[in-house]
């Protein structure tokens, strides 16, 4: 079922649209980082690079409510086409920023890409239950999540290559244009998904409507706990990807190629976990293993923190082959891939359940609400981590991994007690909304 979906028009165009979108967002973000680090030579490179992430996330805290309302009140496929058409113009801003080494233009492009992503997210997840049968929903989410992480990795790698000598400006500008066109073309083939509430009024208070989405989630305990589950995955994953590369550099002495491989291992692990979740579902939405997956995340984090914490400071730089031949390197790779795989096993069925529980006329706004919660959790995780790393506290990074592992064990207990029974995932699901259209 998982791979047969890629041959259907009701899923394949959306799959490739979100894949190229995720690739593009991370390409531009890392392109900006490379210009800051190597071409502009800014003294405050660290804060400027962090600001790039903030520029991308900020629109989700303001415009998620608008995104959910637009998706619920219009044909989702049509809105997606207009957004990707606008992205072609934004790509022109990014190309100009790269050509002229303008970090202002690249910040503007990244902010606009974050805005488009905010409006697009309720569409790409809200439209899945419209085009997929219920027994296909977990498999569809598995493909979207797994491929999304691979696209992020490839985008970051492509953005990093723009800082290398020998990479010409016309080549990079052409790449930006090709990716934008691929996003647009793939989106154009998404089948129509008419609105269930075409008379829905768009709220004028953008910030109020965005945070009202969280209030709406809280009114349905199932969706609130499911939204917390999705957000916990993003918090754990984002903090881990901040801590692990630093720990590897400090305790093992990893070189640039090892740092790149760390992201690869994580992306592959999430992909494996996501596909495994789709395979285990066998046409159902299975939540029975969700809490155990969070517990496994905690165990892998505890082991990663313990193994690096007991190692001394690194001396010299370790190449990738030497890293993979060392016992400490293999142990860390095992922990990281185990963490990512368990995360995929947890996040895919939980988010699939939220999609299936949401009423068709509110589904996009529910997805947008979960997106707001994800952003809030990632900001909380990043802020707390930065505070604990500050010089006046200076908690060692391996200890932070242990603390995150312990927090995951506590979260596993919470989700074990509060996630609904797997059979409840079928409640309130509208089978007519997921009917397969003739000829698709």
From TrEMBL:
A Pfam family matched in the record: MFS_1
Annotated transmembrane regions: 106-123, 143-164, 176-194, 224-248, 260-280, 292-312, 332-354, 366-388, 394-415
Record's keyword annotation contains Transmembrane helix: yes
One GO cellular component term noted in the UniProt record for this chain: plasma membrane
Subcellular location: Cell membrane
Alphabetically ordered keywords of this record: Cell membrane, Membrane, Transmembrane, Transmembrane helix, Transport
Record keyword S-adenosyl-L-methionine present: no
Primary location class: membrane
Membrane topology: Multi-pass membrane protein
GO molecular function terms attached to this record: transmembrane transporter activity
Annotated protein name in UniProt: MFS transporter
Organism field: Lichenibacterium ramalinae
